[in-house]
Specification:
Elements: H1 23-31, E1 39-45, E2 50-51, E3 57-61, E4 67-74, E5 83-84, E6 90-96, E7 105-110, E8 119-124, E9 130-134
Parallel strand pairs: 1-9
Antiparallel strand pairs: 1-6, 2-5, 3-4, 3-7, 4-6, 7-8
Length: 135
Amino acid sequence: MSILDTVEIAEPVAPVTVEPVAPALREELLAGVDERGQVTVRCRIDHGGHVRIWRSTYLVCRTTGHRSELLHADGITLAPMWMAVPPAGLCFTLVFSPLPPACGVFDLIEVVDGAGGFSVHGIARNAQDLYHVVI
């Protein structure tokens, strides 16, 4: 099962919205994060249903095959918890470990047990390592 599944759900379902983290707590949590080299991908889903993201979601460099690991997800629940996509769609942010300097193009791939993982291929690297994708 993946982020795009709309089947009947047997696992727990989170509320329709993810409550924002209090600013003071957010600052405390982010204080120890080393952002040098991290890659940020802002994602948008425009269709309904239920979604979640698996920890086994990676950025894969097309040149080297290097896999950058998912470090943090904001605005979406992690598997096995599901959440409903609001009628207006859902935006969320994924933060990954650094890509190698030689990487010019990479893929965003969710690796799941069985079929159903999503992927976005051919993302061209930019100097900010900040990307926007539609899933």
